[in-house]
Amino acid sequence: MKLTRMLPASCMLLSLMIPQALLAQKPTGSESPSYYNIGGVLSNNESESHFATVIAHLNFDQQYVPRGTTYYDKTIRIDKNPIKTALNVCKHLISRRVYAVVVSHEPTGDLSPAAVSYTSGFYQIPVIGISSREAAFSDKNIHVSFLRTVPPYYHQADVWLEILSHFGYTKVIIIHSSDTDGRAVLGRFQTTSQTNYDDIDVRATVESIVEFEPKLDSFSSYLMDMKTAQSRVYLLYASQEDAYVIFRDAAIHNMTEYGHIWIVTEQALSANNTPTGIIGLKLNNAENETDHIKDAIYILASAIKEMTVNETITEAPKDCDDSGVIWESGKRLFGYLKTRNIRGETGQVAFDDNGDRMYAEYDVINVHEKHSFVKVGSFHYDSEKRKMRLKINDSSITWPGNTGKKPEGIMIPTHLKVLTIEEKPFVYARKLLDDEIDCADDEVVCPHFNITNGNEQEYCCKGYCIDLLKALAQRINFTYDLALSPDGQFGHYQLKNHTTGIGTTVKKEWNGLIGELVAERADLIVAPLTINPERAEFIEFSKPFKYQGITILEKKPSRSSTLVSFLQPFSNTLWILVMVSVHVVALVLYLLDRFSPFGRFKLSTTDGTEEDALNLSSAIWFAWGVLLNSGIGEGTPRSFSARVLGMVWAGFAMIIVASYTANLAAFLVLERPKTKLTGINDARLRNTMENLTCATVKGSSVDMYFRRQVELSNMYRTMEANNYDTAEQAIQDVKDGKLMAFIWDSSRLEYEASKDCELVTAGELFGRSGYGVGLQKGSPWTDAVTLAILDFHESGFMESLDKEWIFHGNVQQCEQFEKTPNTLGLKNMAGVFILVGAGIVGGIGLIIIEVVYKKHQIKKQKKMEIARHAADKWRGTIEKRKTLRASLAMQRQYNVGLNSVSKSVQSQNAEKSRYPILPPLPRTPERAWPKDKEYIVNRKNNSSGAGKPPPRYMPTYATDVSHLIV
User: Fold this and answer.
1) Are 495 and 478 in contact (CB under 8 A)?
2) Residues 703, 744: Cα–Cα separation, whole Å
3) Where does this protein hold L-glutamate (predicted)?
4) What is the rounded CA–CA span in Å between residue 307 and residue 297?
């Protein structure tokens, strides 16, 4: 009674115990026992007798039992009452110091082996099961020292995977009960599939999971849901009673006929109504208890022998009343047992970390007509390769429908749900107007279901991808319903909160088109969907229907036409040298002509009409006139040396003018602005300190590309804050000048650049990839779509789509526009007009200065004229006085008398000789006064008149008479 009170507490403690494989050194001065009692909890007399016989023979096998060591058997009968079984273990086995217990399985008492495991495990006594196959015994938190020579039921999932790989089935439906073993089968299948099958193309994936409660009455509702799936391969784990109900209902719904494949476990295979064509498994030696007893005993002896060599084995516990005793040697002995790998009566015997049997061999059973079971293959251990191998004779298999032809394993639907997304020029989406009933002939109805508010709006779609979808549907014969992406995204792998009964958990999920395909809410994606590793891990891609890359879109920079654009053909240094050369040549021309003997003096034979010698002003005028190709009317060099220099200067002017004209056309007429950026490696993009904004679309393939590239991490961190929700917004901002560089798929950006010649793509393509049609993992349409696309490439259909939707002929127009000369406008030549205007203003300014200067000169001349008149009047007065004095003197002489005539004449002659009358000096033009010419003319006229003599006294001119002015 004391033990029954202790069992529940021991079961709680078992969950805290973790078995440890300890290999300690053998202590000095201590020895292992010389005899070992082996306990047995068996199901019948035959097993007990065989147990004793095997141990008796073991004592004479020196390979396993060294000299001085003896094994004894201690057996009891297993009871279907677990409490009674536990009491018997304490009373008849543990009290006799058993070092291990071999336990069988009573047919009607499922918990009897568990009771033995709980009781023995509490004291760390190893328990070897020879018939217990439930998944619960694999839990080492409960069954801490339990291992078994038979595999658990859920290990049949390993054989399932080998059978699926053999037949090439990649998509299955798993049907299992909701108990521990059923869930263990599903977990084992999924884990082993991902671990051992690296090739995604041949890996079996679970399309649907059907979980049912045991002891069911009907399975029809589950079967109706299974009919809508593509897979027709069913993996069944169920008890014999549940399998009977499932097979019954499946036959009613014609799901056991040709085209359906059933692969079942041992329990389901034993149902009374298994249909023809089913493939099942049967464990070899599953019911041969005697062979398992022998393998268990020899495994135990092998472990004890090795343990005695390495360490000391202490005596086993002998009293169940002492709850504080834990047998440490038992824990280490259990670790030695798990490392065994021997060839036994039931095949190759080895154990995994959970103590479960590995390398168990199965027969592959096929149900033929009249409910006959035929072995068509085996799953056995290959001693050479040291692993399990599957061998099946395909020709001997009868498939459902009583046929020898292997079914395809999938039901290919002919009506598909296709998703797309608006992305010009691949897909144009137009909202259906209220007064419109149907879309146009070249359009397809593509409703948009908004997942945010649950509204659905009708749209009409056309474009590159729509024409491709029509061609695919016609070529590989399917119908479809087209819809737009619910959230308007291509697909991004992001964290998402999920509310469960326990709380809120964070899980990564796909959104957008990829999310719809992964969740199997769509069959096909026909859109400009970039093929990349992140997406290919979750969905299938066809071969690319268009190859492209990533490029940069920017707005063409405005032409650098300024007010001095006409000066661009020459550099500033060259303009300065030309200006200096003009004046240097003019100076040298003047000096050569000045000092040349043939240029300084006039020839004696020349007449008075010959030009004057070249002065400095004329030399400068000549130099500028030759340079500007204007006519030279006067002031040309006269000497031979100066004229040689003039010819050289004319040649220089011709070259300068011709070069200027040619470069002016290149700069102003044929000039086209270049891009601001050189490509993705441009330092302005890589340098985050530069004030240059660039962006892409959030969660797109381009965004994933930048996140993958380590060398672009700095650039991506800058871009991330500027990224847009859609490409349309980004392209519009580039046109408006709000965004300097938009990084996106080359096909779309080339389309935009061809449509708007003000936009340009910069640099070479990078991140090359392609657009592909997206399909579900393991989709039966993958090969058909790929072959159709390859055929479209060969036939030129894809090229025709490019011409029709992407280029529109605009590329040629833009190229032609680039090659034609640019029409000059006021902006280009404004500087020339401003130069002319400046010349006019300068001329007006100079004429004003000349007028002012002339007025000042006239005033000065008037003052000089007044001074001349005053001087003339003074001279006239003086002459009159002289004349009067002479007349008075003559009168006095006349009055004196005639006698004094001769004296007076002599006196007068003397006076004339004293004051001779000089002829007038010749007046040069430089020294003539303004009215001298008029005076001379009057003088001539008077002299030629009617004998009128000129006046006797003429006024003379003084060079300076300013001192006479009062």
Assistant:
1) no
2) 9
3) 528, 530, 535, 701, 745
4) 15
Query: Are 261 and 367 members of one domain?
Result: yes
Query: Residue 373 is part of a domain; what is its CATH number?
Result: 3.40.50.2300
Domain with 656, as residue range(s), is 570-596+613-668
Contact 872, 965 (CB under 8 A): no
For the beta sheet containing 279-283, the strands, ordered from the edge strand earlier in sequence to the opposite edge, are: 205-212, 171-177, 233-237, 261-264, 279-283, 362-368, 372-382, 387-392
**pLDDT at residue 633 in the model:** 55
Percent of the chain with pLDDT over 70: 78
> Is 607's pLDDT higher than 80?
no
To 10 degrees, what angle do helices 826-896 and 900-914 make? Answer: 160
CATH number at residue 626: 1.10.287.70
**Domains in the chain: how many in total?**
4
What's residue 682's pLDDT?
79
User: Within 10 Å of residue 686's Cβ, how many Cβ atoms?
Assistant: 14
Q: Which amino acid is at 391?
A: K
* 119 and 172 inside one domain: no
Residue recorded with tokens 């507490």: 9
528 is known to lie in a ligand binding site:
yes
Task: Place 19 in a pLDDT band, splitting at 50, 70 and 90.
Answer: very low
Residue 523 lies in a domain: no
Interatomic CA distance for residues 380 and 385, integer angstroms:
12
Q: CB within 8 A of 237, min separation 6: which ones?
A: 153, 154, 156, 174, 175, 176, 177, 181, 182, 185, 264, 265, 267, 268
| pLDDT of 147 | 93
| Claim to verify: residue 176 and residue 257 sit in the same structural domain | yes
Q: Check whether residue 234 and residue 375 sit in a common domain.
A: yes
Residue 200: the pLDDT is: 57
Does the annotation list 672 as a binding residue?
A: no
877 labelled ligand-binding:
no
| One domain, residues 230 and 371 | yes
- The reply to whether 51 and 119 lie within a common domain is yes
- C-alpha–C-alpha distance, residues 495 and 844, integer Å: 79
- Are 498 and 456 in a shared domain? yes
End-to-end Cα spacing for the chain: 165
One domain, residues 473 and 495: yes
Is 793 or 11 the better-scoring residue by pLDDT? 793
Residues 275, 400: contact at Cβ < 8 Å?
A: yes
Least confident of 328-337, 367-376, 758-767, 787-796: 758-767
CB-count burial class (<10 Å; 0-12, 13-18, 19+) for 145 = buried
CA torsion sign, 654 to 656 to 657 to 659?
positive
